[in-house]
Structures are given as structure tokens and as C-alpha cells.
């Protein structure tokens, strides 16, 4: 497999290194294995309900110390898209307070009130969702404003099962208005492109590891990097055969990847 030759490991978070607030037992040893071979790791997350600062805090409580550059979120690539496409125009942000604050910190001109002059609606995974936000979104979408969503995930895994994610809310709004958003984040290649450029790594020297075929694995394929699917989150073994997104490697969990690297080094 030559996994020990990889220089950059790009890791999904929910379902790959932890589930909810429970860190998987293999995560810390796996990260130590990566650093022991002289490689780097970054985290790629579609979950836009938390800010980068909140992710740093969450990981620190789990014993993983990282700086902001090591977390590449769908909010980050969405903000870059909004800057490029809307150039300071007013954007309605449908999401958590942390999502709005993060967009504002990236320099996006945002509001969470319906008012004249709104050029687009941007939606994140909103764990603070209420009917008023859905009503606002319908009013704006029926006016014909631009429509962007941070990610297409239908569900977010938790310790007690799945909950509706951004893609599910987008489906609700499509049912009501007939509008579909431009989806950012995985499975698009933007987050991988950012990671490769930031770390100065060639695509052939990187690998993306995640638990979802239609976001994580599809993202890696789109970006031209190797992929590893783990069964610690959403995907079950039976799903793989029928998926158009076939991973380079399949493992039960990231601990098996660390074991494979160790075996390769001992050859």
C-alpha cells in the first residue's frame, strides 16, 4: 500500500476521529504514528455549526492540540467563494451564531434579518434552526437571491444516531421553493486543494480518510488523491459495492491504518 510514504493525511472529523464528544480510542495513537513517520495531518470538516475556535477547543479537551491552519472547514471555503462571487454585497446567513461570527471574521457582509439589498442566502448546518429561519429563507429564495450551502450532508452522526444536516434542510427548502443551492465543502475538491497548497504537498503524496462515500471519498476522487474509507461512522460495508465512489483503501477504523503503516515500516 505504501501508506508510510504519504506526507499529508487529511482527516474527516465526525465519524472518523470521534463521534459526538467521544474520541475514538485509536485516534491519539494514529496521530502519533503520522508524526513519527515525519508526515503532517489536517482536519477537513463539512460541519459548519461550529467555528474554527470551537473546533480547536473541542480537540484540545480531547487531548489534541492544533492551530487554526490545521482545521479546514466548509465555512472557510464558503467564505472564499462569497468573497469572489459577491464582493462585499449583503448576505443572509442561515446558521448558528458561531457560523455567522466565522463568516463575519472572514470579512463577509452578513445579516440574519430579511431586508432590502440582500444578494444571496448562505446556509450552514444549523443546530439552532427554527421555523422563522425557514420562513426567512423561503421569502428570500422566492425573490430570486443567490443560494449557497456549506455542505450537502443529509445527516450528521451522533452517539445516539443521525440528525438532519444541511442537505436535509436544503431538501425542505427545495420542496417549498423549488430552489437548489450551490453546495460547497465535500464532495467538491476545494478543501483538499486548500490543504495541498497550504502544506506544499503534491496530490500523490496525500491521502484523505473519512467515513462517508458520497462526501469524503468523492471529495478525494475529485481532487485526485488516494482515499481511505473507515466504518466507524455513517457507512456500512454493504454500501460500498453499490457506490459510484470507490475508495482506494478500506479499513474498519483508523487504528488499522496505523497498524498497516507499522507493518510497512517493519518490512
Keywords:
15 strands, 10 helices, alpha/beta, 5-stranded parallel beta sheet, elongated, 267 residues
Please give a structural write-up.
The chain is α/β, with parallel strands linked by helices and 267 residues long. Helix content is 39%, strand content 21%. Strands 5-4-1-13-14-15 form a six-stranded parallel β-sheet, sandwiched between helices. Strands 7-6-8-9-12 form a five-stranded parallel β-sheet, sandwiched between helices. It has a two-stranded antiparallel sheet with strand order 2-3. It is elongated, with a radius of gyration of 19 Å.
SSE layout and pairing:
Blueprint: E1 8-11, E2 18-19, E3 22-23, H1 27-36, E4 40-45, H2 52-61, E5 71-73, H3 74-86, E6 90-94, H4 97-105, E7 110-111, E8 118-123, H5 131-143, E9 146-149, E10 155-158, E11 161-164, H6 166-177, E12 182-183, H7 190-199, E13 206-210, H8 213-223, E14 226-230, H9 237-240, E15 249-251, H10 254-265
Parallel strand pairs: 1-4, 1-13, 4-5, 6-7, 6-8, 8-9, 9-12, 13-14, 14-15
Antiparallel strand pairs: 2-3, 10-11
Helix pairs in contact: 1-10
Strand content: 15-25%
> Structural class, please?
alpha/beta
Poorly predicted runs are none
Write the H/E string, N to C.
Answer: EEEHEHEHEHEEHEEEHEHEHEHEH
Helix content: 25-40%
Total number of strands: 15
Q: Mean of the pLDDT scores? A: 96
Number of H/I helices:
10
Overall outline: elongated
Distance between the termini: 12 Å
**Largest beta-sheet characterization:** 6 strands, parallel
Amino acid at each position: 500500500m505504501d501508506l508510510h510514504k504519504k506526507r499529508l493525511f487529511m482527516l474527516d472529523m465526525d465519524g472518523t476521529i470521534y463521534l459526538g464528544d467521544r474520541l475514538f480510542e485509536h485516534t491519539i495513537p494514529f496521530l502519533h504514528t503520522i508524526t513519527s513517520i515525519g508526515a503532517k495531518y489536517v482536519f477537513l470538516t463539512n460541519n459548519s455549526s461550529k467555528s474554527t475556535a470551537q473546533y480547536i477547543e473541542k480537540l484540545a479537551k480531547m487531548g489534541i492540540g492544533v492551530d487554526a491552519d490545521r482545521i479546514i472547514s466548509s465555512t472557510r471555503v464558503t467564505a472564499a467563494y462569497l468573497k469572489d462571487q459577491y464582493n462585499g454585497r449583503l448576505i443572509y446567513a442561515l446558521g448558528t451564531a458561531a457560523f455567522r461570527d466565522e463568516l463575519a471574521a472572514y470579512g463577509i457582509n452578513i445579516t440574519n434579518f430579511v431586508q432590502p439589498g440582500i444578494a444571496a442566502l448562505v446556509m450552514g448546518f444549523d443546530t439552532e434552526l427554527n421555523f422563522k429561519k425557514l420562513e426567512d429563507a423561503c421569502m428570500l429564495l422566492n425573490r430570486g437571491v443567490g443560494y449557497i450551502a456549506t455542505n450537502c450532508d443529509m445527516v450528521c452522526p451522533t452517539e445516539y444516531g443521525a440528525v438532519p444536516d444541511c442537505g436535509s434542510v436544503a431538501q425542505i427548502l427545495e420542496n417549498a421553493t423549488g430552489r437548489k443551492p450551490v453546495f460547497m465543502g465535500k464532495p467538491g475538491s476545494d478543501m483538499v486543494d486548500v490543504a495541498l497548497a497550504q502544506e506544499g504537498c503534491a496530490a500523490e503524496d496525500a491521502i484523505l480518510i473519512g467515513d462517508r462515500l458520497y462526501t469524503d471519498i468523492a471529495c478525494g476522487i475529485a481532487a485526485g488523491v488516494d482515499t481511505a474509507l473507515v466504518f466507524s461512522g455513517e457507512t456500512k460495508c454493504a454500501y460500498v459495492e453499490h457506490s459510484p465512489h470507490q475508495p482506494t483503501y478500506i479499513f474498519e477504523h483508523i487504528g488499522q491504518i496505523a497498524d498497516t503503516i507499522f507493518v510497512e515500516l517493519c518490512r
